[in-house]
Amino acid sequence: MTELAEEAGITVRTLRFYRERKLIPPPRREGRIAWYNEHHLARLRTIGALLERGHTLGGIAELLAAFESGRDVGELLGLRTPLLPPWSEETPVRLSPEQLADHFSEDITAENLSASLDIGYLAVDGDEFVHISRRLLDASTELVNKGIPLAAVLEAGRRVRAHADALADVFTTLIRTHVLSDILERATAADPPTAQEVERIARTIEALRPLSKGVVEAELSMAMDRRVQAELEQWLKEQGQTPQ
């Protein structure tokens, strides 16, 4: 128990308190000896990361209980079933603590775990983690393998998320203002949209999916061309060479 507490950066008294609150699973016992493993350490680090984000122990216990009992987090938070199917086509990935370590090795720190939870890349599901996207996990792993610290990758991800939210706002504002304004302005609690109007909203937003992806991909590709060319020209000038 002492070694586990030291590894997690907490006191033995705190560890006992977490056990009493059932925030961590009981250890495997052989006679009078209690054996803890990497799952316990991962759970303790997760608890620490959630506490850093401002969650209370009561709230953490409720979330962990919800995950372990199979309840949907959206249900727990009181979220309604969405009108449309998910926009993204990303596939979540379940990871044990050992598998997560295989991806990022010594970069699995409390700070990086907290950042991953805060961005929304990771969620906790019992003794496992769930990464929000296979593509993002693979990209993050490859960037770390190229020598970029995970903390820098996560900060870049946070910035990309902010820009992606801004892009999404551009497209949704465009549709709301110029296509759906008549429906949205008329709709009230006393006079909600008709089934036909709701269907029209769903079809319109669904049609936006390939258009928005195409625009963003085209603009990002051209922006990368401009930036890479500018960086190359600057490097050649610094080397005393003239760009061809």
From TrEMBL:
Keyword DNA-binding: yes
Sorted UniProt keywords: DNA-binding
InterPro entries found in the cross-reference section: DNA-bd_dom_put_sf (IPR009061), MerR-type_HTH_dom (IPR000551), MerR_fam (IPR047057)
Pfam families listed in its UniProt record: MerR_1
Gene3D superfamilies per the UniProt record, alphabetical: 1.10.1660.10
Regions crossing the membrane: none
UniProt keyword annotation of Lipoprotein present: no
HTH merR-type domain sequence ranges: 1-66
Name this polypeptide is given: MerR family transcriptional regulator
Species, as recorded: Streptomyces endophytica
